[in-house]
Amino acid sequence: CHMLKFSCDNPRGVVSFMDGRLKPIGFVRVDDPHDGDIAAVKAPAGIHGDIIVAIRFGPLWAMMAPAGVIARKLEHVAAWRLNV
C-alpha cells in the first residue's frame, strides 16, 4: 500500500494538492472543522509523514496508523467540507 506523505516544510503543497482533487467533487475550504470534515493535519509521533489526511470526529482527528485507525487532538493545516 502506498501512502502519500508531505513535509511540514511546504504545507502549501499539501493544501494545493488536496484543493485540486477535492474542489472539483464538491468540497469547500472551511476554517472551523466539524464532524465529518477532512483535513491536512500535522501527524502525531509514530506516524510516518509530517502532514497526513484525517477525518474530524468530535474534538479529534481520525487517521490510519500502522496498527489501524487512531484518533487524536491535532492541529489542522487546512480543512474541507462536502458542500451538499
Overview of the structural elements:
By secondary structure, the chain is mainly β. Helix content is 14%, strand content 40%. The chain contains 1 helix and 6 strands. The chain has one helix spanning 11-22; strands spanning 27-30, 38-42, 51-57, 60-65, 68-72, 76-82. Strands 1-6-2-3-4-5 form a 6-stranded antiparallel beta sheet, with helices on one face. Strand 2 and strand 3 form a beta hairpin. The chain starts with 10 loop residues before the first helix and ends with a strand.
Arithmetic mean of pLDDT: 85
Portion in beta strands: 35-45%
Structural class: mainly beta
Q: How would the global form be characterised?
A: globular
Number of strands: 6
Specify the helix fraction band. 10-25%
Rg, Å, rounded: 12 Å
Any chance you could write out the topology, listing elements then pairs?
Elements: H1 11-22, E1 27-30, E2 38-42, E3 51-57, E4 60-65, E5 68-72, E6 76-82
Antiparallel strand pairs: 1-6, 2-3, 2-6, 3-4, 4-5
Concise summary:
This protein is mainly beta and 84 residues long. The protein has one helix spanning 11-22; strands spanning 27-30, 38-42, 51-57, 60-65, 68-72, 76-82.
Main features:
mainly beta; globular; 1 helix; 6 strands; 84 residues; 6-stranded antiparallel sheet
